[in-house]
Design brief:
Elements: E1 2-9, E2 12-25, E3 28-43, E4 46-55, E5 58-61, E6 64-67, E7 71-79, E8 85-94, E9 99-108, E10 113-123, E11 133-141, E12 144-151, E13 159-166
Antiparallel strand pairs: 1-2, 2-3, 3-4, 4-7, 5-6, 7-8, 8-9, 9-10, 10-11, 11-12, 12-13
Length: 170
């Protein structure tokens, strides 16, 4: 994916991401590009964010087309002064009607290293108690960021996610 953000005012940022999506079913493959839009507002130790994900893009297998489910997310965070801890909570709603409630804690060990743990629960959908747990670590060195997250799963062997970022203009 490729994203860009802009600080509109000292307390308001807007962002945009374009991301490729690929899917394979049996011997058939499809690909598309979707877009995410977001806003982050902050005041002191508090912040509020809103995002709208998977806008546009349709996967077409032979003659069957399927739109990706869009997701609206609203979240807030509190960064406890002088402790290194940030607490967050979010509510997500997918276009199919599924609603997720999530929360997490990040501990910034120093300016280079952050440790994270979180939990997400889909309201109204059965899942194992392991399905919502996530843990990760983040590394920052000047403009370069590297994040790793692991989510265990009762139906899979676990999900590993790695994200790299380069911050331009900092």
């Amino acid at each position: 994916s490729l994203g860009v953000s802009h600080q509109v005012t000292p307390t308001l940022m807007l962002g945009f991401t374009a991301k490729p999506v690929f899917e394979t079913l049996d011997q058939f493959s499809a690909g598309t590009v979707t877009f995410d839009f977001g806003m982050l507002a902050g005041s002191g130790p508090f912040s509020l964010g809103v995002s709208y994900s998977n806008v546009g893009g349709t996967l077409t297998f032979v003659t069957d087309a399927a739109s990706l489910p869009t997701t609206l997310r609203i979240g807030m965070a509190y960064s406890a002064p002088l402790t290194g801890y940030t607490f967050s909570a979010a509510l997500s709603r997918k276009s199919g009607g599924l609603t997720d409630l999530s929360g997490g804690v990040e501990y910034s060990v120093n300016s280079l290293l952050a440790l994270r743990v979180g939990y997400s629960n889909s309201i109204g959908e059965y899942s194992s108690s392991l399905d919502g747990i996530a843990a990760g670590v983040g590394l920052r060195l000047q403009q370069i960021g590297l994040d790793y997250c692991y989510r265990p799963s009762a139906t899979q062997e676990g999900i590993h996610q790695i994200t790299a970022a380069y911050l331009i203009g900092r």
